[in-house]
Write a structure and sequence with these properties.
The two termini are 33 Å apart. This protein is an alpha+beta fold. The protein has nine helices and four strands; from the N terminus they run βαβββαααααααα. Helix 2 packs antiparallel against helix 3 and helix 3 packs parallel to helix 6. It is 48% helix and 8% strand.
C-alpha cells in the first residue's frame, strides 16, 4: 500500500485534499512527520525517508516520489476511476501534465520570488512575473469554471492551493477570485482543513 509522509499545515496538505477528493484514504497509509518550519520550530524526522527531510513524500514499494506535481500524476494515474486526473490516451493528458509542470516550474517560483521581493531581469525572463502568471490563468479560465473545462480536476487543486495559505497573494482579477473560491469551497478541502485545525495544540 502506498505511504504518504505528511506534516500538517504544509505543502503536503494539498495531497491529503487530493486523497480525500479521490475517495482513496483507505488505500493510502499516512505517516505524520515533523519538518523544519520557517519560525524555527520542528525539524527533520528520522521516520521520513525524503532525502531532504521535506514533505510530501510518497512511497509505493520500492518506488519513491517527491514533488507535488509528480505525486499528483502518480496517484491520479494509479486511481483513474476517481476522475481527478487525465490518464494516458485522454485528449487532455498533455494539458493536465502541462499545468502540473507549470505549477512546479513557473508558478510556485514566481510566487516565492514575489513574496520575497526579489527582482532581476533574468528571473523574469526565466520564470515570468506574477502578472504573466495571472494573465495565463485568466486566459485559461475565460468562459469556463476550471482550468481544463467544466470539470474540477487535480490541476485546479494544485494551482489554487497557494491562495489558501497566502491570502495576501490573492489576484485582483474577478475570474481568478471566483475560481479560487470555487476550489476553496470543495467539501474535501473543507474537511481536511477542519481536521488539521482541530489537531492543532491548544
Amino acid at each position: 500500500m502506498p505511504t504518504l509522509y505528511h506534516a500538517p499545515h504544509s505543502r503536503s496538505t494539498s495531497i491529503l485534499v487530493l486523497i480525500e477528493e479521490m475517495g482513496i484514504a483507505d488505500r493510502i497509509d499516512l505517516c505524520e512527520v515533523t519538518v523544519a518550519r520557517p519560525d524555527g520550530s520542528g525539524g527533520p524526522d528520522p521516520r521520513n525517508p525524503h532525502p531532504e527531510g521535506k514533505v510530501p513524500y510518497l512511497t509505493d514499494g520500492t518506488d519513491h516520489l517527491r514533488e507535488r506535481g509528480a505525486i499528483i500524476a502518480y496517484l491520479t494515474d494509479s486511481f483513474p476511476e476517481a476522475g481527478l486526473g487525465r490518464p494516458v490516451g485522454h485528449p487532455q493528458r498533455g494539458a493536465f501534465l502541462s499545468w502540473l509542470f507549470y505549477y512546479q516550474g513557473v508558478m510556485e517560483p514566481v510566487l516565492v520570488l514575489d513574496w520575497a521581493k526579489i527582482e532581476h531581469p533574468a528571473l523574469h525572463a526565466t520564470f515570468r512575473d506574477l502578472d504573466a502568471v495571472f494573465a495565463r490563468l485568466s486566459e485559461a479560465l475565460d468562459g469556463q469554471p476550471y482550468l481544463l473545462g467544466e470539470e474540477y480536476s487535480a490541476v485546479d487543486l494544485l494551482l489554487s492551493s497557494p491562495f489558501q495559505w497566502l491570502p495576501e497573494a490573492m489576484p485582483r482579477q474577478p475570474v481568478l477570485q471566483a475560481w479560487i473560491r470555487r476550489c476553496a469551497d470543495r467539501p474535501a478541502l473543507q474537511a481536511v482543513m477542519a481536521r488539521e485545525h482541530d489537531a492543532l495544540p491548544v
